[in-house]
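Dear support,

I submitted the protein below through the web form. The confirmation email said the job was done, but the results page showed an empty box. After a refresh the structure appeared. I'm attaching both so you can tell me whether what I see now is the final result or a partial one.
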Amino acid sequence: MPGAKEILAALACDKMGGMSRAFTDQDFQVLDAWLQRRRTGFHDIVALEGFLTAIVIGPNTLMPMAWLPKVFGGKQPRFRDLEEMNRFMALVMGLHNEIAVYFDTDPDGFEPTFYESKVGKKRVIVVDEWCEGFIKGMRLDALAWKRLKRERPDLLRPLQLFGTPAGWKELAAGGPIKMHAKWSVQVAPAVRGIYAFWLPQRRSVIPSGDHEGRVH
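What the results page shows now:
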């Protein structure tokens, strides 16, 4: 069973450009199907996108070995063989890099991937899974995220409403339809605001032109 050494080797391959091609819609679908078959870690690609977005735009640079175990569900990933592990890692890193490039090139245009549900004759966006994933990403560096909670709690509110048990209770108490209509449309602008909030700190941590180990 592939272990930590093999994971590090795969990451080294990524640094050398072995996983640097564009992340396609087909890659998205393949990774989604793969996640749904797994018994540990993330089972949903929308939640994974939220998780990786928090990693990319958060206060500190987190190396892949700090967050990959959360993706595949433990320090010892369960794969059939090294080839399967490398393919899975390539897809996960591809999605991560796609998010990072988007924020590097067009942060104001970033839109999360949300599910849609048909309610009567209307189609309603479902933001819960994405927000849950984002909250999980925040928890990996919880101490550093506290400054945002103190200074701009308004940016976190939409994500907390849809991504935490306390938030779900508040949504239910306020009337799910009314609360959803008011707050679901605020998730994407809040994420872009969080990126802008942390950007000066991230730029001060990562020297210009130093891309090794970067997550954005």
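Response: this is the final, complete result; the empty box was a page-load delay. The beta strands are 115-119, 122-126.
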